[in-house]
Write a structure and sequence with these properties.
304 residues, Arc Repressor Mutant, subunit A, D-Maltodextrin-Binding Protein, domain 2, 11 strands, 21% strand
């Protein structure tokens, strides 16, 4: 049974005339009559008394009309509600960022903006690597991304070219950290020794931070002696492994701000610190009505 058959039946019950009901439904009378016949065959009974003038409903038809009106009315209301929900969702700006920025920066930063723009946060993005974030912006799956930036991070080369725009909204520092040993001293200390390399909790090679750290370690004066014992996709996992004493790892400074962090101390001096920017990117071709409004508010916040 098709919904349009019910709508046809309601139209016929109102007009009591096949031709006028067909006009109301914007179909030909033969097509309309055939659909009413199909409805009756589906129900297994006559719903229209064709022997009266004007047409009338059979007792079964009167009962069926009540149900048909309820169904078509509910369907119309549901469709309108879905369209309104779609309209509201279309007004939202879709943000995506990685897990560590969600936890350490994004919400506080967004709340500090003087804006009434409705923001939709894609929490699935927390599991994406850097390349996936870039692709999401390229393919229009989000309106903005917030990410770490460094000159050594070639994953963002596309977004630093024509067709994209960015704002640098904050500075960040990657810090080498270690757990304490039983004497309350650093369990591991950079640069380590060639004969006894430090166990290293690293990021995997698909992440932005892995490329930044690797590039920095090639430039430091002292050669680091590290042995990768674990690779992770996000900083919170690195943090948990380091806190349990499994090795040394680099973490964004903003992520070191909970009671767990009392167990984490520097594993090296400032020579091992890695400066980063936090940037927000958008595609110039995106003409979302709310995007320019938010972009202006971000620019204002940077001038304060």
């Amino acid at each position: 049974m098709e919904i349009r058959w019910l709508e046809d039946f309601c139209a016929l019950a109102r007009t009591r005339h096949f031709s006028r009901a067909a006009d109301e439904q914007n179909i030909t009378q033969p097509t309309f009559s055939r659909r009413i016949k199909l409805l009756e065959e589906e129900m297994g009974m006559l719903l229209i008394d064709r022997e009266t003038l004007p047409l009338s409903l059979t007792p079964a038809g009167k009962l069926f009309l009540e149900t048909s009106e309820k169904i078509t009315s509910l369907l119309k209301e549901t469709k309108e509600a879905c369209l309104e929900l779609e309209r509201v969702e279309a007004q939202k700006l879709r943000f995506a960022t990685n897990q560590s920025l969600y936890l350490s920066f994004f919400r506080h930063w967004l709340e500090g903006l003087n804006t009434q723009v409705d923001i939709g946060v894609n929490l699935k993005a927390a599991a994406w690597d850097g390349r996936q974030l870039v692709q999401a912006l390229e393919q229009g799956q989000c309106d903005l991304i917030v990410c770490y930036w460094s000159r050594e991070n070639d994953l963002l080369e596309t977004l630093d070219g024509p067709g994209y725009e960015h704002l640098s909204v904050a500075e960040e520092t990657l810090l080498p950290v270690t757990a304490l040993n039983a004497q309350g001293e650093p369990k591991y200390q950079l640069p380590g020794q060639e004969k006894s390399p430090l166990p290293y909790i690293s990021y995997n090679d698909q992440t932005m931070l892995n490329r930044v750290i690797s590039s920095h370690l090639l430039r430091v004066v002292q050669t680091p002696h590290l042995l990768v014992v674990n690779e992770n996709a996000n900083a919170t996992s690195v943090k948990a492994m380091v806190a349990e004493g499994y090795g040394v790892g680099w973490l964004p400074a903003r992520l070191l701000d909970t009671s767990l962090d009392a167990r984490l101390i520097p594993a090296g001096d400032a020579a091992w610190h890695i400066p980063l920017e936090i940037r927000v990117y958008r595609a110039c071709s995106n003409h979302h009505k709310q995007l320019e409004k938010l972009w202006v508010e971000i620019e204002k916040s940077l001038r304060c």
